[in-house]
Structure formats: structure tokens, C-alpha cells
Design a protein that fits this description.
Blueprint (H helix, E strand, L loop, with lengths): L2 E3 H24 L2 H4 L3 E4 L11 E4 L10 H28 L1 E3 L5 E3 H23 L4 E12 L5 E12 L6 H25 L2 E4 L10 H8 L1
Antiparallel strand pairs: 1-8, 2-3, 4-5, 6-7
Helix pairs in contact: 1-3, 4-5
Length: about 220
């Protein structure tokens, strides 16, 4: 069995998706001559006795020369190709182990997810906490006192507000560096694995072909 890389398999999967979508859209909008036979009977004499009736067969300009039965078979082949490719990719992923550290390895999907989670942990949680600073500010506040006449009156006074971070930010910054380093190493290992000929699959179609090319070859 021929083998292709995971990157090539992904590119081929995208090609199959695009081609299937293009062919389905073709059947919706640009295959009228293969779907309809339209005849117009112009009954002019019923309105004007000297006019001649006409029968016109409408002609359509289609974008591809393939009929519905052949297009149906082509799409079935493309669907089966995509399913077979998905199965081959799933099998290959079971064998592709990404080294996380000296004790742990993960399969490709798990390693991808773990790298994302490490970066999310750093960016969404650790960095905002690690970047917090002690602050000092001054604010005007309002107090109330009784004047000599016994009436309660407001007065303005200055308040110094001191805000201190009550945890150590250094360990958080250390974890951020460790997470980023590990995520980068995992990504590098994933890129290397994606370039290995690991997917047992022989493409039936050429990913550089347009849907018109495929139709021409299929005919």
C-alpha cells in the first residue's frame, strides 16, 4: 500500500470537500440542459389572427458536460474516497505518538489539544494574574458632620487607596515559560510527524485538478 504524509492527507481531504461542494452546486445551478426539457408554445394567433404560432425549444448554456446519472456515480465515488481517507487517517493517528516528556507520549489529536490547552492556560489564566501590580491612588470621598446649628452637612476629604497583590507572581511567570516551551516542543514534534509517510492511502484523484478536470477524466 502506498503511503502519504499527514499533511498531504489533510490537503487531499480539503480538496475532496471542495470538489464535492462544487459538484453539488453545479447540479443546483448549472446543469439545466441535463435536468429540464423546456418547450415554449407561443400562441400568438389567439390574440392576433394574422400572427403565426411558434414552438421554441429552450437551449441552456451549461458549465460542464456530464449528465445526472454519471454525476451521481462520480459523487458516490468521491464520498467513498473521503470515507476511506478518513479511515486511513484515523488508523495512522493511532500509530503516531508525540513525545510530551520523558515519561509521557500522546497520539496526534491528543497532543494537538494539549498544546492548545497549555497556551490557553498561559494566555487566559496565568498572564493576567502574573501581570497584576501593586497600586496606589488618591480619591475624593464624602463625609458628613453636624455644624454649629445642628444640621448635617457633607464635606470632601482625600483618601489614599493602597492595593497590594497578596500572592507571588514569580511562580506564575515560571509556569508561563515552561508551558510555552513545552507547547513549542510539542508543536515541533507534531510538524515532524505530519511530514512522515504514515497514512496508508493511494489517492484516486489529483488534488490539483478542478472539478471540470475530474469530469473530463471521468467521462
Amino acid at each position: 500500500m502506498d503511503k502519504i504524509t499527514m499533511k498531504e492527507a489533510g490537503r487531499y481531504a480539503n480538496f475532496l470537500d471542495r470538489t464535492i461542494e462544487d459538484l453539488i452546486n453545479l447540479s443546483h445551478y448549472n446543469m439545466n440542459s441535463k435536468i429540464y426539457s423546456v418547450v415554449e408554445h407561443h400562441k400568438k394567433s389567439a390574440s392576433y389572427q394574422n400572427a403565426k404560432d411558434e414552438t421554441i425549444e429552450v437551449e441552456f448554456e451549461d458549465h460542464a458536460e456530464i449528465d445526472i446519472p454519471k454525476l451521481t456515480v462520480l459523487l458516490q465515488d468521491l464520498f467513498l474516497e473521503k470515507a476511506d481517507l478518513a479511515e486511513s487517517i484515523a488508523e495512522a493517528k493511532k500509530e503516531l505518538l508525540i513525545k510530551i516528556d520523558d515519561q509521557n507520549s500522546m497520539n496526534l489529536d491528543s497532543a494537538l489539544e494539549y498544546a492548545k490547552l497549555l497556551r490557553r492556560f498561559s494566555d487566559s489564566y496565568l498572564k493576567p494574574l502574573a501581570s497584576k501590580k501593586n497600586t496606589k491612588s488618591k480619591e475624593d470621598r464624602t463625609g458628613y458632620a453636624f455644624n454649629v446649628e445642628g444640621n448635617q452637612t457633607p464635606y470632601i476629604y482625600e483618601t489614599e487607596v493602597i492595593t497590594k497583590i497578596i500572592y507571588d507572581t514569580k511562580p506564575l511567570n515560571k509556569i508561563i515559560k515552561e508551558n510555552n516551551y513545552l507547547a513549542d516542543r510539542i508543536s515541533e514534534a507534531i510538524d515532524k510527524a505530519m511530514g512522515l509517510n504514515s497514512v496508508a492511502f493511494k489517492p484516486k484523484f489529483n488534488y490539483l485538478d478542478s472539478y471540470e478536470d475530474i469530469i473530463d477524466k471521468y467521462k
